[in-house]
Known about the structure:
mainly alpha, Phosphorylase Kinase, domain 1, Transferase(Phosphotransferase), domain 1, 3 domains, two-stranded antiparallel ribbon, 11% strand
Amino acid sequence: xxxxxxxxxxxxxxxxxxxxxxxxxxxxxxxxxxxxxxxxxxxxxxxxxxxxxxxxxxxxxxxxxxxxxxxxxxxxxxxxxxxxxxxxxxxxxxxxxxxxxxxxxxxxxxxxxxxxxxxxxxxxxxxxxxxxxxxxxxxxxxxxxxxxxxxxxxxxxxxxxxxxxxxxxxxxxxxxxxxxxxxxxxxxxxxxxxxxxxxxxxxxxxxxxxxxxxxxxxxxxxxxxxxxxxxxxxxxxxxxxxxxxxxxxxxxxxxxxxxxxxxxxxxxxxxxxxxxxxxxxxxxxxxxxxxxxxxxxxxxxxxxxxxxxxxxxxxxxxxxxxxxxxxxxxxxxxx
Length: 335
């Protein structure tokens, strides 16, 4: 469930989030909207419960990156989600790993797309592409923002895919080169980094990724403002990488193979403090072990009490005196 105050929000997002979800309906890979309502003070939305987000899961992995099989399978699913959103006439404008989450139970291999509070229509009611504004705000998460967004240009479908590409590299190779920079203070340096990786830093940027991601960046950069992106060509490159590296598309995801990944991800904070998560896990394990030892000790005491109660009386107890008191007098009976 999501909640938002009716007043006092600098940028209310829940109403838009609910509206986009209602339009997505029951498309695969999007949580179902169950109910939305409001009170005089709050707005609420109830939607399908999903599991851990991709950022927490990635940070819980060794090296803070997925295996290539899992990373590429995630890329394939998230690309489909973005295409589905675009086909309905919407831009996300905040593509990043925390806005994708896995399902629960037997659906934990499905990746769901979440959070549409920054979404914007790019087509009018007649299906025509809206013209760009002369000065658009820098929206979304700066670490994943497109170059056009950094330059306060209107975003289009290409920009969602550019953000998706940064996320994909992160899934494959770990934290982005600019991940530790403060986005509020150093957004211009982050923009410079994104320009640098297109020229001199390109080889280094893709060094731990399949070479096909390099080709995908070229495809994305070739898309103009009103162009429909080449989703099929990008999907082909992802499948080509799977085939070339002989990766099994039916292989379980990393968190399905090792339940410790989910366990650790539960402790990873919103900013992904995976080292702290390890410490918290160790402390939780110690507390759990202490509780088990206490329960074992209590069970042992109970078993000893039961055993003692069932034992036959000892010879020393065969002869004893029991006092019986009646209303008339007290009798002493010896056995």
